[in-house]
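Input sequence (233 aa), recorded before submission:
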Amino acid sequence: MNEKYTYLLVDFFSILFPLVFSFHPRHKFYQQWKALWPSIVLPAAFFIVWDIWFTDMGVWGFNPRYLSGIYFINLPIEEVLFFICIPYACAFTYEAVNILSKRERVSAATAHRLSEVLVVGLLVLAAVNYDKWYTASAFVVCAVLIALHRWVWKTTYIGRFYFAFLFILIPFFIVNGILTGTGIPEEVVWYNADEFMGIRMGTIPFEDTFYGMALLLMNVGLFEHSRQRQPAR
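Predicted structure, token format:
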């Protein structure tokens, strides 16, 4: 296999099985596409702008060894596709987990308390690491989104999100592990050591978990909002 397609193949295989199983006759996830695609594209636009900015600042960057060589501004096309493929796979997982679980696995009270702990903890960590761009920005964005769900929108599905996120973390560690160098000679995505805490889970920066959570909170929030606005069939 040509190494330059590594990141592209990570994107491809991330979305392949969720996309194929979207047409499963029992669940028919493709019927949710009208609500889903805007819920992927709008957050993608926000994160791509963030990504362009931080790449330009040198907060992180990309190893040309594993890239096709096609770029959008300063981002490899694979990075742009990441914000489409990964949210689709995660939204599919969110829906599948909640269909199969058949009942609320996280009570409203537990979800509220967890949200409160996360908001406080993330803001404290952001304040302590205010001079680290990735750490501070990822934690603040995630904390703000959790706070909006908890106190402004008062969403009823946040417990389902937390439960599904436990399952989403499994492919998250596989995909992000590869991108940060697990199982391959060099990392696909590199991080400026001055801009994050330096704590890694294997090869994955700790901040990636909450960067990913923020992305998925946007995706799921818009997805659920769009579904609620659609007329009942």
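Checked by second reader. Helices lie at 6-21, 33-57, 77-101, 108-128, 133-152, 158-179, 207-229.
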